[in-house]
Amino acid sequence: TQPASLRHFLADDDLTPAEQAEILDLAADLKADPYGAKPLAGPVSVATIYDKPTLRTQSSFAAGIAELGGFPMQVDGKLAGIGVRESVPDVARVIGRQFGMIVWRTYEQAKIEELAAYAGVPVVNALTDDYHPCQLLADLLTLREHKGELAGLTAAFLGDAACNMGNSWALAGASAGINVRFGAPEGYFPDSDILDRAAKIAEQTGGSVKVDHDPAAVATGADVVITDTWVSMGKEDEAAAREAVFSPYAVTEDLLGLADPDAIVLHCLPAYRGKEIAAEVLDGPQSVVWDEAENRRHAQKAVLSWLYRQAQNVRP
Ligand code: NVA
Q: What is residue 314's predicted lDDT score, i.e. its pLDDT?
């Protein structure tokens, strides 16, 4: 149905380390001149579909696609009845003929992989249960702005590392040559398939990925401290049990005090002050979460421009 060489961005390791670096460079250029480049002029229409709640993602994709000269259209996944009224492959074959690219936030990774297999145009993962790769490009762009060269930095990810953000930090962090350490309770690390993939990538880049149950050991000396909600979208029923098990991993001022004195703090948001992160930390001088949120737009503009250019090259 489509050339094997058509590129998508469904998981962080769909990009090689060199491609990730190229996209981060492009994102920095686009940030420096947000209205300059118009690679989607025409305009190229881009479908964005959200099956889970969204603030940053829907606004940054809409604004970013417009800045690139494209036309962002939010397709209502419920009205369309994706996988209910029509199968995912049928939806893919229809919308792939209307739009130049498709952006989807949904639950199962297998569904976005199915969409990509039939769409005939690039598909971008705007968060699934398994990965949040656009967020990671924004995180890495933010880290680069504050710390320069990414390779060799130490990142401490605390809390629920068994979610999309933990998985994406393992893969994208390893690609960037970062030493990624996860501090989480038993059962809440990225699964072994992800850790194996990340370890293979780290062998090429000089990064590393380690897991530890001791939050203090993980935070000590880190260049960047990262956390995420303890209750990811779709896990609301487990909220009470999760709060009990994750509380030692909260990013408090004391825990942050163990990191490098110039460490920055990242959080993909929404944040729950007093739960995974103390208000004093989120609102404090080391937090760069608003830069991080802005960088979603620049990073996504870069990945969309890059994928669109690749797709033009593979068209018959
Ligand atoms: N792990 C979180 C990320 C939110 C952007 C979730 O999936 O809800």
A: 83
Ligand 1 pocket (Cβ < 6 Å) reads 132, 163-165, 228-229, 232-233, 268
Query: Same fold for the domain at 12-131+296-314 and the one at 135-293?
Result: yes
Catalytic site residue from 268, 286, 297, 300: 268
State the Cα–Cα distance between residues 80 and 83, nearest whole angstrom: 9
Pick the CATH number of 12-131+296-314 from 3.30.70.120, 3.40.50.1370, 3.20.20.150, 3.30.70.20: 3.40.50.1370
Q: Kindly report the protein residue whose alpha carbon is nearest to atom 1 of ligand 1.
A: 232
- Is 164 marked within a binding site? yes
Nearest ligand 1 atom to the CA of 234 is 8
What CATH number does domain 135-293 carry, 3.40.50.2000, 3.40.50.1370, 3.40.1280.10, 3.40.1010.10? 3.40.50.1370
User: In testing the pocket of ligand 1, which one of 52, 125, 231, 232 has its CB within 8 Å of the most ligand atoms?
Assistant: 232
Size of the chain in residues: 316
Question: Cα–Cα distance between 149 and 256 in angstroms, integer?
Answer: 22
Interface pTM, i.e. ipTM? 0.98
Adjacent-strand bridge partners of 208: 179
User: What's the Rg (C-alpha) of the chain?
Assistant: 19
- Residue 2: per-residue pLDDT: 67
Largest distance between two CA atoms of the chain: 58
Catalytic residue among 7, 8, 56, 105: 105
pLDDT below 50 — which residues of the chain?
Answer: none
Tell me the domain boundaries of the chain. 12-131+296-314, 135-293
> Would the annotation count 7 as a binding residue?
no
